[in-house]
Amino acid sequence: MKLFLLLLLALPFAARAAVELSSACPPSFELLGDGTCQLRTLYDLYDSPEQHGGVQARLPEVKRRYTPQQIDLGRQLFFDPLLSANKDLSCASCHQPDKGFADGRGRGLGARQADGRRKELARGAPSLWNVTFLTRLMWDGRAETLEQQAMLPLFNPDEMGNTAERLQRDLDATPAYAPLFRQAFGENPSVGAVARALSAFQSSLVSFNSRYDRYAYGDTGALSEQEVRGYNVFRGFVARCSQCHIPPLFSDSELAVIGSPALPGKAADPGAGALSADPALMGAFRVPTLRNITRTAPYFHAGQFGNLKDVVSFYNDNRGHAAPAGEQLKIHWHIHMTRGPELSDQDVSDIVAFLDSLEDESMAPRIPQNVPSGLAVEAALKMEKP
After folding, report:
1. Distance between CA atoms of 271 and 140, rounded to whole angstroms?
2. Measured in whole angstroms, how far is the alpha carbon of residue 245 from the centre of its chain?
3. How far is CA 358 from its chain centroid?
4. Is it true that 7-207+377-381 and 211-356 share their CATH fold?
5. Does residue 27 have a cis peptide bond before it, meaning omega lies within 30 degrees of 0?
6. Which of 20, 22, 45, 291 could bridge to 72 as Cys pair (CB 3.0-4.6 Å)?
7. How far is it, in rounded angstroms, from Cα 122 to Cα 118?
8. Does residue 305 contact residue 298 with C-beta atoms inside 8 Å?
9. CB-based burial of residue 17 (10 Å sphere; 0-12 exposed, 13-18 middle, 19+ buried)?
10. Is there a contact between 37 and 204 (Cβ–Cβ < 8 Å)?
11. Spatial CA neighbour of 179 closest among 37, 20, 66
12. CB neighbours (10 Å) of residue 122?
């Protein structure tokens, strides 16, 4: 008996602790009669045309709901390094909860190469907050659903480096996952069910309890005087920020050519133009959400700007002033068109102050202490330099 206890204590905690799926919906979700979770916010009380953009505007409809067990299985998988080829990266490695579900880098880090260094990717990790409402995913809009999006980094050799065949073998070789998949989906573990579970979990990453939201709900004291000024400039005709970053999502899911600069010494990134023969998409990138934007520096698709003041100043400068030389870009008509800045330094500071009011991580999910594979969760969250 003593020998058994000694052996048990010698096992890693993650290998000993059984994982149980939650039967409760995440915060702000209601459990419906069919067993699925429905998001509830005060925006449900409003009625407005699509992409209305006003203070009291209704959220877009979420077309798919999930059960608590499906969402929680997705949470386990999201933090489990089992999904990567080398078992040292999880989805959360690049989408870290304490960094706005980005990774704090201009360019993400991917799979470890033959020399032991991680591959530095061409683009950064976009935030996942409110991603369930988007109609285009990835920086270049190549995915239309969360299930499609989930599979792209898993099987990209430069990112998580896995293959569908290897992932299926690893799932089959992890006994703890079988009962969880059967509980969540009524089937044995499969690559397709992994995609559905990750989609379910990401659909629960919602942020609608910021000070801006309180202001939108009628609490006029939720914003400071400067933040109110910033919001008025933000939605004014000169800045036109809200034309693309439409409240309450502060994104319109569209692809936009803004003339962003190339990284020093790097070729211009064609964005969506690499996937289409349409010249209007050359240099186009998906409009990111501004929710929790204070947590996701550096900014733009490859971290070209280190702070929000520089971002706002970029838009306040001449149209196309920073675009890569020689690129024939059809810059979006909302981008500043006149010579010289039209916003004052105070206007720029006020917009930056307003963006701080969009911060809300009150419904961030709990990071699991252990996952069914028994692999180290925290180690995968610590991304070293390339």
Report:
1. 5
2. 15
3. 15
4. yes
5. no
6. 22
7. 13
8. yes
9. middle
10. yes
11. 20
12. 15
Q: Cis ω on the peptide bond leading into residue 368 (within 30° of 0)? A: no
Domain boundaries in the chain? 7-207+377-381, 211-356
Phi, psi of 161 (to 5 degrees): 70, 15
Q: Coil, strand, or helix at residue 33?
A: coil
Measured in degrees and rounded to the nearest 5, phi and psi for residue 85 equal: -60, -40
List all residues 6 or more positions away from 234 whose beta carbon is below 8 Å from its beta carbon.
Answer: 241, 242, 245, 351, 354
Please report the DSSP string for 323-336 in residue order: SPTT------TTS-
- Here the tokens at position 42 are 């005060």
Tokens of 214: 């309180």
For residue 188, give the 3-state DSSP assignment: coil
Which long-range contacts link 119-126 to residues 24+ away (Cβ below 8 Å)?
A: 119/158, 119/159, 119/386, 120/386, 121/158, 121/159, 122/269, 122/302, 123/269, 123/301, 123/302, 124/298, 124/301, 124/302, 124/303, 125/94, 125/95, 126/102, 126/286, 126/288
Instruction: Kindly report the average pLDDT of the chain as a whole number.
Output: 91
Both structure tokens of 100 = 């706005």
What is the spatial distance between Cα 38 and Cα 331, in angstroms, rounded to a whole number? Answer: 39
Residues 6+ apart with CB under 8 A from 237: none
- Which class in CATH covers the domain with range 211-356? mainly alpha
Q: Which pLDDT tens digit goes with each residue over 2-51? A: 443 334 334 444 444 588 999 999 999 999 999 999 999 999 999 877 76
CATH (residue range 7-207+377-381): 1.10.760.10
Bridge partners (DSSP) of residue 203 are none
The answer to which of 64-73, 98-107, 109-118, 170-179 has the lowest mean pLDDT is: 109-118
Q: Using one digit for the tens of pLDDT, what is the confidence trace for 336-362? A: 655 567 899 999 999 999 999 999 999
Instruction: Determine what percent of the chain falls in helix, strand and coil, rounding each to the nearest 5.
Output: 35, 5, 60
Q: Collapsing DSSP states into helix, strand and coil, what is residue 102? A: strand
DSSP string for 238-253: TT-GGGTS-TTTT---
Q: Which segments of the chain does DSSP mark as H helices, in order? A: 2-10, 13-16, 68-78, 91-94, 146-154, 164-172, 177-185, 191-203, 211-216, 225-234, 308-315, 345-356, 377-381
Cα torsion angle, 79, 83, 88, 93, sign: negative
